[in-house]
Amino acid sequence: MMLFCIAAFIFSAYSKGACRNDLQPSAAGNFAGSPFIYAKTGKTPVEHKVSNPKQGGFLSWYTKTYKDTVNKDTSFFINGTDKVEIKVRYYCTYDKKIVLTGQYLEIYDAKGHLVKAPDKFVTHNFVSDVKVKLNSKPIFNGIVKKENFANQGLEDDLKQFGVLAFQAISKYSRGFTIYFRIGIPTNEYRGEVATLDFDSAGRSSFKLH
């Protein structure tokens, strides 16, 4: 049985310019700053009641998030004296390239009853425009999308139905990491953590975890 995920976009911290350089994955693989919240209590999934399920409560809400854009602008030091500047713009592409059908639209209420859902839901990819400088020198300037992780072992269903979510930025002693998650919007348990990693010299690499 596929439980329906009531996800929540956390945009307020970014829109207010909050700088979070210390966000780390939780034991469940999620992040405090994640655009998607996946709630669990121990090993038991938290079942969420869908509001107005016959009207597609979640799907209707989800489409309203397309217009929201996350802007992250932060800076910090690594190696003691090397200054890193990062700008991230996360947004919807409106490309209509993700079509969810069948099992991905099985929606259950809090009592485990199957509720009415559309036969098909067409949605979009999200991408992140990432600009990184090390000591004022540009070291990365590009659009990060789920295709960047296709050759890192991303499974076929996530290639076809997954949505990229920008999550957090974390620094460490020998570099820093920009965290993403590739997940299916209507399935809170199907997804992979993806990262854009930088070493102390500014070399970058894409990884799937």
How would you describe this structure to a colleague?
This protein has a single domain, classed as Lipocalin (Beta Barrel), CATH 2.40.128.510. The model is unreliable at 1-55 (pLDDT under 50). The strands form five sheets. The chain has a four-stranded antiparallel sheet, with no helix packed on it. Helix content is 9%, strand content 41%. The chain is mostly beta strands.
Topology:
Blueprint (H helix, E strand, L loop, with lengths): L11 H4 L24 E2 L2 E2 L11 H8 L5 E9 L3 E11 L5 E4 L5 E2 L5 E2 L4 E4 L2 E9 L2 E8 L11 H6 L1 E10 L2 E9 L7 E9 L4 E5 L1
Antiparallel strand pairs: 1-2, 3-4, 4-9, 5-8, 6-7, 9-10, 11-12, 12-13, 13-14
Short description:
By secondary structure, the protein is mainly beta. The chain has three helices and 14 strands.
Essential attributes:
single chain, 209 residues, mainly beta, Lipocalin, 4-stranded antiparallel beta sheet, 3 helices, 9% helix, elongated, disordered N terminus
